[in-house]
# Entry
Amino acid sequence: MKSRVELKATAAKLFFENWFILVLSAAVIWVVMQIQTQVMRMQARPPEEHLAILDATPGFEVMAETLRSAPEVGLSVWQVLLIFQILTIVMTLLGYGLSSLALKAAEGKDLPDLEIFYAYKKPLRWLAFYFIYTIKVLLWSMLFIIPGIIAALNYSQAVFLMIEDESLSPLAAIKKSTVLMKERKIEYLIIVLSFFWFYVLAFFTMWVTTLYSDPYMRMTLAGYYKELTKAQSVSQSAHVGQTQPENV
# Structure
């Protein structure tokens, strides 16, 4: 297995070799994110009795003050939540497209111009995966936050598995990912956490820096996925070799 440093160095090199298509693709996600932010600002001011409940709830005082500054006319809270969720799904499907680009880059393939819309070629398959993944992680999270994190780590390779094998169902991909991630969860979590400061920086730059950090991170994770599948293949070959009966 390549080390985290080697994976990130390879991903950075690949980014600068394919920077134009990667930045352009990440920009599509960034635009949807900005629309999502604007929708949140379109919420009308709730009735004062609702704001009073927020005031009386510890930790929600700041939210109450923010909502008091909202315009009197605008979208209801339910309309805002609905549009926000729809845009979240749109953005997630675009993220699967960026992961497809990252995997192709990690495999040394040419990057198609419109690969960011990859998941929209088979939207029902990817929507099914999104809902199954979300529900399973949420259900584990209801037990406690740690089981939810472990579930997310177990299922982390499912997207790449579904991209690589288009006949693979969401449930089968999640099952295969869990096998791949056996005894690898801490290793993977460390790689993900190594990008923490990129997203702190993004928070202070209106997420503009994600035009670099998002493709960079996904290509690092795609490289890690390739290393995982390679290690699994070697392990299976060695196991088959050991169980082969010797020729008499």
